[in-house]
Write a structure and sequence with these properties.
This protein has helices spanning about 25-35, 50, 70-85, 105-110, 125-130, 180-190, 215-220, 240-260, and strands spanning about 10-15, 35-40, 55-60, 65, 65-70, 90-95, 115-120, 145-150, 170-175, 195-200, 210-215, 230-235. Strands 3-2-6-1-7 form a 5-stranded parallel sheet, with helices on both faces. A 5-stranded mixed sheet has the order 8-9-12-10-11. A two-stranded antiparallel sheet has the order 4-5. The protein is an alpha/beta fold. α3 (about 70-85) packs parallel to α4 (about 105-110) and α6 (about 180-190) crosses α7. β4 (about 65) and β5 form a beta hairpin. The chain is globular. The structure holds S-adenosylmethionine (SAM). S-adenosylmethionine binds near residues 18, 96, 174, 202 and 203.
C-alpha cells in the first residue's frame, strides 16, 4: 500500500536482498521494471544492471567502508528532486531496506514534502547468513531471542549492551568484521560465556559464500581472519554450536587428508 500522501511522484524503497539478483522478490522486480529513476546501493551483484529498464535513469549512490559515492543528504535530495518532478523512483537498497539502511532519513524527507512512498521487504543478510551456516537464529530451548547490532558504532554507544548478561538467544552483528577481537572481548565482559560459538559468514546468499567459526575467547585473542573482500556478518550464540562442531569435524578430516598426501 502506498502511504496516503499527495501524489506528486512516487518512491518505492525496494529491498534488493543480500547480493544475487535471484534473491530479489517478485514485487521488487515488478517495481524495478516500471521505474523511471533507480538510485541503487553497493553490495548488489552487477547482474542487477541487466534488469534495469533501458529507459530508466540509473544512478549508483553506494557507500562502502568509508567510500561514499554520495552523502546521505545528497541521496535524500536526489530522491526528493525526482519524485517532485513526477517520476516513479525506485530506491534500491541492499538486504532488507529496514535493517541498517538509513531508511529513516529518506522517509523523513519524503514525509515532510508530502511525497507518497512504499517499502518492499526483502531478504536481509541477517537471515541469508544464518542459512549459510545450516543453522537457525531461533532454536527451541536454546535461543528464544535475537539481537541485531551495528558493529561499526556499537563500541561508542553503551545503550546497545544493556541487558546482555541475561540474554538467551542469538546475537547478529553487521558491519563488525574489522572489530572481531574487540567485539568478542566486550561480549565476554557483558556476561556472554567465553566458550560461546561465533561464526563469520562472508558473501551470504551468493555463490562465493564462506563461513568460519571460533569461540568468543579464541576470537578475542586471534580474531577470525576474513577469507574474501566481500561483506561479512557475525553470529554469536548456542544456536550455531552444532554447525561449529560439524565445521571442526570437516576441518580435521581435511587436515588429515592433506597430511597423508
Ligand atoms: C549497511 S548494512 C546493510 C544491511 C542490509 N540492509 C541487510 O539487510 O542485509 C551493511 C552490512 O550488512 C552486512 N551484509 C550485507 N550483505 C551481506 C552479505 N551478502 N553477506 C554478509 N554480510 C552482508 C555486512 O555486515 C555489511 O557491512
Amino acid at each position: 500500500m502506498l502511504s496516503n500522501k499527495t501524489e506528486i511522484g512516487r518512491v518505492s524503497f525496494v529491498s534488493g536482498g543480500p547480493g544475487p539478483v535471484d534473491l530479489l522478490t517478485l514485487r521488487g522486480l515488478e517495481r524495478i521494471k516500471n521505474a523511471e529513476v533507480i538510485l541503487y546501493d553497493a553490495l548488489l551483484d552487477p547482474e542487477f544492471l541487466d534488469i534495469f529498464p533501458e529507459s530508466a535513469i540509473c544512478l549508483y549512490v553506494g557507500k562502502r567502508s568509508g567510500q561514499h559515492s554520495r552523502t546521505q543528504e545528497e541521496i535524500s535530495e536526489l530522491l526528493l528532486e525526482y519524485a517532485k518532478a513526477g517520476k516513479h523512483v525506485v530506491r534500491l537498497k541492499g538486504g532488507d531496506a529496514t535493517v541498517f539502511g538509513r531508511l529513516g532519513e529518506e522517509i523523513e524527507i519524503l514525509q515532510e514534502n508530502g511525497i507518497s512512498f512504499e517499502i518492499i521487504p526483502g531478504v536481509s543478510s541477517v537471515t541469508a547468513g544464518v542459512s549459510a551456516l545450516n543453522s537457525s537464529l531461533t532454536l527451541r530451548g536454546v535461543s528464544r531471542q535475537i539481537i541485531i547490532l551495528d558493529g561499526h558504532t556499537i563500541m561508542e554507544d553503551n545503550r546497545s549492551w544493556v541487558g546482555m548478561e541475561n540474554f538467551f538467544g542469538t546475537i547478529v552483528i553487521l558491519m563488525g568484521t574489522q572489530k572481531i577481537k574487540e567485539l568478542s572481548l566486550k561480549l565476554i565482559a557483558k556476561g556472554i560465556l567465553p566458550e560461546t560459538p561465533i561464526a563469520l559468514v562472508e558473501n551470504a546468499g551468493g555463490r562465493k559464500v564462506t563461513s568460519s567459526f571460533s569461540t568468543l575467547n579464541l576470537a578475542s585473542e586471534k580474531g577470525i581472519p576474513k577469507e574474501t573482500n566481500g561483506p561479512g556478518i557475525l553470529y554469536v550464540g548456542e544456536a550455531i554450536r552444532k554447525s561449529l562442531e560439524v565445521w571442526n569435524h570437516d576441518k580435521k578430516i581435511s587436515n588429515l587428508s592433506q597430511s597423508t598426501k
